[in-house]
Amino acid sequence: MSRVLSREVGFSDAFSAAVSADAGDVASKNRADQADGKGLATLLLAAVVAALLVAANEVTTQWTEGRLLAAWIVLWTVAFASLAALLTPIRRLAHRLAGWLGGLAERHRAAEADRQLWALALQDARVMADISVAMSRDAASDVRALR
After folding, report:
1. Of 93, 100, 125, 142, most Cβ neighbours within 10 A?
2. Global pTM?
3. How buried is residue 113: exposed, middle or buried, by Cβ count under 10 Å (0-12/13-18/19+)?
4. Is residue 146 situated within a structural domain?
């Protein structure tokens, strides 16, 4: 809603600067979310590999003492094979999850900004008039686009 107001009504430069600053904050937050995706991928990979190692350990503990070396070889083979096989899929999953969470946070911030603007508009008739004009212009351009 704030983008519509700044574009349609032509608020002051201070308002435009605030909107630009918000856009910069969103861009830096998105970069931080992408960096967090690597940490999340590493954490997920470690959890999956640990689960596979526990399963392999359960299988190998039932072997007799004479096969202890073979059990260790199987255990480490499972560890390295799972690291190699699961690194890329888990990294993709972590990036998707981080992107989804970042989008969710951005939608929440935008909704909160809209609620604050609406609360201000309920108290100040000038802001309500500006919103009304912006929405009328937006609706008129939508109608023109349909023709």
Report:
1. 93
2. 0.44
3. middle
4. no
